[in-house]
Amino acid sequence: MAASRKSLIKDEPNRRAEIVRAASRLFADKGYSATTIRDIARAVDMQSGSPFYHFRTKHDMLLAVVLEGMATISRAVGAAAAQGGTPREIFDAMLLAHLEQLLAEDGRHFAATLLHESHHLEAAALAELIEQKDAYEALWQKALRELRRAGDIADDSHVTRLFLMGALNWTVQWYHPKGGRSVRQIARQLSDLLLNPKSR
Amino acid sequence: MAASRKSLIKDEPNRRAEIVRAASRLFADKGYSATTIRDIARAVDMQSGSPFYHFRTKHDMLLAVVLEGMATISRAVGAAAAQGGTPREIFDAMLLAHLEQLLAEDGRHFAATLLHESHHLEAAALAELIEQKDAYEALWQKALRELRRAGDIADDSHVTRLFLMGALNWTVQWYHPKGGRSVRQIARQLSDLLLNPKSR
DNA sequence: CCTACCGATCGGTAGG
DNA sequence: CCTACCGATCGGTAGG
């Protein structure tokens, strides 16, 4: 049937995207410094010098991975927040969206690289990332503020937000898809832990 | 006066400990893979081949850092738990002890290396670490169980413990000693967030 | 994107 | 612990 489809589009402009995806996997697994350009080239069936046709430096590859990871999470959680509902419903939807991006098969290497390898960026790139991260976390701060107004949480301070980010991002360290617990269950348990028991 | 003290003890058996401390700083700052034996040697005023007089491989240095980090935290939190008191008092003391080890000037590089670089260990060393980590986390599981019995928390499941570890360990990412908030305040806020409002 | 290559650096060792 | 060194590997480039 469509046996030739994949090979036909071999020369499309997404060789670059393939490199980024392979790099995310390797950076997440072995770390940025321990990953070799040759590792990345091998993963996408290129010769060792060829990735430099698509990227100027290894740092640029890291930046591409990290920015794509940040953008994907931001987009997902922003969409969840825009869905509307009570502060509690919005918060629950945001928790689920964040965890799905972090733990899903396709996005988790981007997230892991973002969380663990960003400090290898140079100052200018790091500043760009931090800007996006601050905008992202402002979404959460706002959600907490409205939970507070609705009486669902006692403290909506910055420290509360940081504890929340920690609980969420730490899941990367322990979650296993085969682990019995679904992402939905995990999101629900965190909501239950942080928010006051529902009235009625 | 005692001007010669430091140079007199230059040949004591703690050159090894100096190497471990320097390594912890470098591993925490630049990462294990990006840190060079030459970096470590320079930090303790040795020639580039000399650290190998004290350690067989670079991996052995990482293992030494990581095990010392784990042992220090375990000891501190174990001591806090053994102090006794109500479940809530014990829990609060454990929170404070864990955070002090993570964030204090002297121990934070060990903790950061433990949290971020352990995956560079070989399988056997990693297994040794995980064993110690499991024993450590059992301390927390027990503390949660007793909070539950006392009615201070609704859920003492494993997932709750993992959220707690995340909130705690994530502080490494954002805490700054000059940041206004004391470690004690941070511990207190986390306790307030997780536990039911005190009766009375 | 491949071929062929370069200078630099790395972990580790022998021999004292 | 230092001196002197080795083989291997790395990020990156010129020239096609």
Verbal overview:
Two copies of one chain form a homodimer. The first copy, chain A, is an all-alpha fold and 200 residues long. The first copy, chain A, has a single domain (59-199), classed as Orthogonal Bundle (Tetracycline Repressor, domain 2). Helices cover 69% and strands 0% of the residues of chain A. Chain A contains eleven helices and no strands. Chain A has helices spanning 5-8, 15-30, 37-43, 51-54, 58-82, 87-103, 108-117, 123-149, 158-169, 171-174, 183-194. Chain A is elongated. In chain A, 36% of the residues are buried. Residues 1-11 of chain A have low confidence and may be disordered. Chain A binds a DNA duplex (16 and 16 nucleotides) through residues 15, 36-38, 46-50, 52-54, 56-58.
Q: Which short descriptors sum up this protein?
A:
200 residues; 0% strand; elongated; DNA-binding
- Number of DSSP strands of chain A? 0
The total tally of domains of chain A equals: 1
**Chain oligomer state:** homodimer
Structure classification of chain A: mainly alpha
**What is the CATH architecture term of chain A?**
Orthogonal Bundle
Number of helices in the DSSP assignment of chain A: 11
Strand content of chain A: under 5%
pLDDT below 50 for ≥5 consecutive residues: which ranges of chain A? 1-11
- The CATH topology of chain A comes to Tetracycline Repressor, domain 2
The CATH class of chain A: Mainly Alpha
User: Which sequence of SSEs, written as H and E, runs from N to C of chain A?
Assistant: HHHHHHHHHHH
Which two chains touch over the largest interface? A-B, 32 and 32 residues
